[in-house]
UniProtKB/TrEMBL annotation:
It comes from the Eukaryota. GO terms for cellular component: cytosol; nucleus. One of its GO terms (molecular function) is DNA binding. Residues 37-47 have a biased composition (Basic and acidic residues). SUPFAM superfamilies: Double-stranded DNA-binding domain. It comes from Prunus persica (Peach). Residues 14-47 are annotated as: Disordered. This is Double-stranded DNA-binding protein. InterPro entries: PDCD5-like, PDCD5-like_sf. Belongs to the PDCD5 family.
Amino acid sequence: MADPELEAIRQRRMQELMAQHGVGGSGGKQQNPEQQRANEDAKREAEERRQMMLSQILSAEARERIARIALVKPEKAKGVEDVILKAAQMGQIAEKVSEERLISLLEQINNQTTKQTKVTIHRRRSVLDDDD
């Protein structure tokens, strides 16, 4: 979780975005195989660093729980990981996150993002029905 590592990840991401938008002189979305390999390597390296940071922050049980969540809802697991990493970078996490703390965090996130379903029934009136 060192700052130079974070800065290196940010620089790589900025280069990827510039290459995608044609700012870096590549001239469009077409990339040669060397650039594609470099982008894939950068993504893989960033993901490895992310997993390394998570392994330092989370207990083994908490990592297992996130892995199980990722099997069912990968976007939710990624969001929870992002929240945990952001909290760790801001210094809000002083010790390893236990499974119980992870569960309470998941419950808080679920309460904030719960979608309420509203069912409205519109009954059709028949031409033969009279209101009289």
